[in-house]
Amino acid sequence: MGVSTSSPEKGISLVTVDVPPVNALPVDGWFALADAVRGAGRDPRVRCVVLAAEGRGFNAGVDIKELQAGGADALVGANRGCFAAFAAVYECEVPVVAAVQGFCLGGGIGLVGNADAIVAAEDAVFGLPELDRGALGAATHLARLVPQHLMRALYFTSRTVSAAELHAHGSVWRVVPRGGLRSAAMELAGEIAAKDGELIRLAKAAINGIDPVDVRRSYRFEQGFTFEASALGVADRVRGRFGKEGT
């Protein structure tokens, strides 16, 4: 369990998250994920990274219980851990393909929003329930998946959007039955990995260089409001209702 790295095919590194019960990562888990993705990208033999998860869902965001118990230190740690993991995916020296099943929420949006391509199972749902969790953030990454006004509506309502809907918007490459998710992601990764290794790295750097939004700077700006909500006591008030009947 935790974060593991394997090499299922030549030129492809598979980074897998397995943190039961719902892949809600503690602070250490976010940093471990960042290290795994960066390490895979630095390997000169790797031409594509597949980011996947075991269990019911891809990622349920941060560990809320750790935040509730750890106070300001836990919040700062979660902010830094998420920032590190999201940046590692974005800055990975080779393309990253996200293989998403089940729920992809909160921090999961930060990961897939910074990935280069997304393959999703038919049961995958994507959303930012941040306003229901006493937090803010990752609108930067949701905006890379859906148009601006839809992003705002999803963000303010905490609603989710299906894999099929994201496919219609062009942000999901393929939607497949859950049993075929890993093979579909590996198929796309294999097509990428067939390219020249040096050229694919130059291509990744070039694509990042023409992005209209600096995702690291804009996400860091959002995180400042998360800390402000905590300092004002708003976050604790909202988190105090988390998991209780009717919320």
TrEMBL record:
Species the sequence originates in: Streptomyces bobili
InterPro entries for this protein: ClpP/crotonase-like_dom_sf, Enoyl-CoA_hydra/iso
Into which family does the record put it?
Answer: Belongs to the enoyl-CoA hydratase/isomerase family.
Q: What is this protein called?
A: Enoyl-CoA hydratase family protein
Check the record and name the PANTHER family matching this protein. Answer: (7AS)-7A-METHYL-1,5-DIOXO-2,3,5,6,7,7A-HEXAHYDRO-1H-INDENE-CARBOXYL-COA HYDROLASE, ENOYL-COA HYDRATASE-RELATED
- Keyword vocabulary terms for this entry: Lipid metabolism, Lyase
